[in-house]
Amino acid sequence: MITPGPIVPGGGGYRHSYEIGAPARLVQVSGQIPVAPDGSLPDGFAAQCRQVWANLAAALAHHGMGLSDLVKVTTFLSDRAYREENSAIRQEVLGDHAPALTVIITGIYDEAWLLEVEAVAAR
Hints:
Layout: E1 26-32, H1 45-62, E2 70-77, H2 83-94, E3 100-105, E4 115-122
């Protein structure tokens, strides 16, 4: 990863920027919520976070893409207390892949949801 110009060095599994060289396809994924396909809501942040990533992976698979095609991820956390756990699970799920990343602490549409993730993928 190259850090452009006078910017704080990247880290934590993200890049400051991600260049897409004339992609054949671009997929915008709406905010994924921690609700399972059967309508259930997992208990606790870790389980909800993993469900969100599973939902995101399923949305990408629908378009013939995977998590390694992600170029931008925006995570909305309901509480600052989830920052470290969120980062650890994201790095567990993405491995060495490091898309551009933004994390926002905010109110979530449903108070039972502890996070929501939207993304952009390109191939």
